[in-house]
């Protein structure tokens, strides 16, 4: 059975996530550019589970996170336009399509803003560690990762409830 293809307007939270995502990407790029001249030739590029630096690379590698943020933004923005093509835990019908599609789009929207925020945080921390302002990524890195896991579990649960 083919799924209905609906045109569902963005929710207010999706619009807010778009603004936040773009702001985080731009802030990351601007901060990196402002700090560029202060950065040493070698910067941290990897952490161990304790949040301590265990890998170093050239300072140009710091642009990978903003670039990845842009790729994630574009990819998830395009993906969110096709909720009818997602995999769902229950059958999609005319009656539940709008609920399920909106829920799925909200999951993608939350994940987009959370992943971009994680990359923005890492970009900021890597820059600060390179400049010796801080020693490690801190506990907030794990908080952000936990939020991403929680969001995924929450929306899977909601998908089941919205049958």
From TrEMBL:
Q: Which domain of life is it from?
A: Bacteria
Q: Where is the DUF1648 domain?
A: 24-69
For this protein, the parts annotated as crossing the membrane are 12-32, 62-82, 103-124, 139-157
Under the heading Pfam families, the entry gives: DUF1648 (PF07853)
Report keywords, A-Z.
Answer: Membrane, Transmembrane, Transmembrane helix
Q: In its UniProt entry, what is this protein called? A: DUF1648 domain-containing protein
Give the source species.
Paenibacillus foliorum
